[in-house]
Amino acid sequence: MGKNGFLDGEDLEWQERLFRLRKKYRETPPGFREAEEEEKSLRDLRRIRKEYEERKKYRICSGYRALQECFVGRERYLTRIEEILTGKSGPAVLYGIGGIGKTAIARAYVRRHQEKYDSVLFLSCDIGFFPLFCDDIRVAVSNLHYSRDKYGSKKQYFKEKMKALAEIGEESRLLLVLDDCNREADSYMEQIFALPCDILVTTRIDPAMWGVAGGIPVMELEPGREWEEFVRAYRGSEPTQEEWKEYREYRERIGGHTLLMMLKLHGVEPGKDASGTMEMIAKDMFRRFPLKKWEKQALRELSLMPVQGISEDLYYQVSRMVPGAVERLEDRLLIRREEKEGKYVLSLHPIIAKAARDVFVPTQTNCRTLLHGFYKIARNSWNRTYLENQEIEPYIFAFLNVFSAPKPWLFREYGAFIAWLWIQGYFEEAEKCCRSLVCQMEACYGTVHQATGETYLWMAAVYYNSMNFEKADVWYEKSFQSLNACSPFDDRYFYVLGTSYAKLSRSARYRGDLDLALGLADEALKIGRKYWDLCEERSVWYEENDAQNTWCHWLLNKARILYDLGRVQEAWELGYQAWKGVWDEVQEGKNYGYELVEFERFLVKVLMALEDYGRAEEVAEEMMKTALAYRMEGSKEALSCREQMADLYLKRGDEKKAARLYGEITQKLMEDFPYQRDWIRKIQSKWKTAGGNVKVHLIDAE
Which of 255, 432, 643, 653 is deepest in the core (most CB within 10 A)? Predict the structure, then answer.
């Protein structure tokens, strides 16, 4: 037992394991011999788990631990930071020119005082405070993540995140480091600076502009003992008299700039005629330093990344960079390679990044490999969780900010990014990006072209998934007209054309025009067969749109239409055929298993209509297993499956079980998805039908 007689995390884990063992080995003591005993134990376990989660409601998950690194002198800055934070006189703000050593001092402070804090958040302020603190990867808090259904908007979620951080700051020792915070004062900054925790800021801006008194100006290393220790430390040996003379002359020429001095000590030096700003000096250094082709490409690509960098594993995955290029650049201090939470992260100093962008000029052409690498991840967004998708959020937005006008020949890469945007709930951004892409495609290919018709499909998908079905149908029709009037551009023509038929079929079904829907569905399947045969003939399979998977979804669409037409037995046969096709792909490792849920839900529905309740329950149990294997127990997907299970209980006359399940679903929806009012009302109505009588209060929107 933990403190105060409560279960701690390890005890709770043991209780949960014990429960599973007792459930598995029923015939062996202390296994459950009676159902009532198991139910009581489950209730107790849920109660203590809830109590534990309430006590541990919020905690920082994205912790930071400073690495051991070379750091010389500058004790006065560390002392002053400690004085300000100990005195609770506001945030400690280090300010000075870029590359002077502000971040190194901040890291040194964390390294020296890490143990006196329960958690440290070290954040690079490359984006606004609002999106930064809404980011559940960079600012990860336990029992808290964004859901549009729960919070309604990101503004509401920001308020909740601030409340959680304030609670953490009140109950524990939290250090918040805001690195490279070169932003004007705003209301969000005011809220963040008001958090009850120690706050350390690095910036190029005089903090007096924010209304913060007592900033700590960071100056260059003064000549003398401190500077000499710095030279010895970064050089790794005692310089000769001639070298000392050279270093002193160089120091005078660069104004004692720390970063450039470090580069000089590692053998990286701009030309002797270098002068002007640090960015100009860095540019000159790139021009004169003998960088190989792949090293230049690495600097070009990494200059696009956010300030916090990118994990080394992910970078190699998406860039196809040659081995050794990164290591060579790290040796010359052009790339920072740091270990964070067991992974190495690559980043560029802001001065180096700006110079690299100016000298090596990233374009959509010379960065196409990188764009395509992220495309290969983004195209599977539908089968990834919200948090998994959020891992690539900084990079997607980095591309969209830099390359706001996509090249026509990158339309499929941008199509995947657009899908990622609306899947993550960024509908306005998705619409804006897609409109830009549509304009580019129409200007390049005209309105009658396969590529243009494909972008029309994506615009329709944006509107459809934002519940604007009227606009979605307009764009589905535009796509249909364009694709039917054009000639094939590549082998994917039949897939895209078939998709336009399938989407219009779905729209017609929703409108109740079932005869039209059936005709369009049949046509989609005919075209799909052409696409499938073509792929088999040429042994070419597009990874993002496997022909069999597409075929199965179109079969399911037709099965749904047959069900609505009352042709239930035909619907069962076709739906089972579609499910079997996806099941075979899953077994062969060609598909994500989560897609099975959609097919299994339909099969349960059809079996209920056929009054085959035994088989319906078998399929429903498999459906629940699949949903829980890929989604959390309290997810919308899992709750939808539980609703269908309750529908099955009600249909076969087991009102007691149905009422209990409807009640549990309603409670969970109210806790986690309060903005899903229509869904809550629907479940409440079913609950009453099953004999439930608990009133549910719907939360009003702000």
Answer: 643
Ranges of residues in the chain with a pLDDT under 50 are: 1-7, 271-276, 543-545, 696-702
Q: What is the pLDDT of residue 483?
A: 94
For 204-218, write each residue's pLDDT tens digit. Answer: 888 888 888 778 888
Over its C-alpha atoms, the chain yields an Rg (Å, rounded) of 30
560 vs 524: CA distance, rounded Å: 14
- 576-584: long-range contacts, CB 8 A cutoff, minimum separation 24: 576/603, 578/552, 578/553, 579/552, 579/603, 581/548, 581/549, 581/551, 581/552, 581/555, 582/549, 582/552
pLDDT of residue 206: 85
Give the type of residue at 95.
Y
Closest CA to 365 of 301, 431, 308: 301
CA distance from start to end of the chain? 42
**Contact status, residue 124 vs residue 180, Cβ threshold 8 Å:** yes
Backbone angle region of 5, left / alpha / beta, with phi > 0 → left and psi within -120 to 50 → alpha: left
**19 with 43: CB under 8 angstroms?**
no
Element (H, E) at 153: none
Coil/strand/helix, residue 133: helix
For residue 92, what are the β-bridge partners? 200
